[in-house]
Design a protein that fits this description.
mainly alpha
Length: about 80
Amino acid sequence: MKDQEFKQIRAAVADYIVSEGCSCCEADCHNEDAEVLAKLLKVKKYKDGSGYDFYAYSPKWKKYQKEKSTNKHIT
């Protein structure tokens, strides 16, 4: 597999994982599935070790964060 293909697959999976929501509303097996995917896709853990940082690989999340930061209201 070429590096670009790997990155595209990782980004697609990251988008899927991110869309699953927060830890308070996920299925019991979600953490286990996420760990399997993270290891296969070489996703880095959060610095505090609480899980895997799929957000770091999500183009949609990065775009959202960029748009959010440029649309701040001045009070």
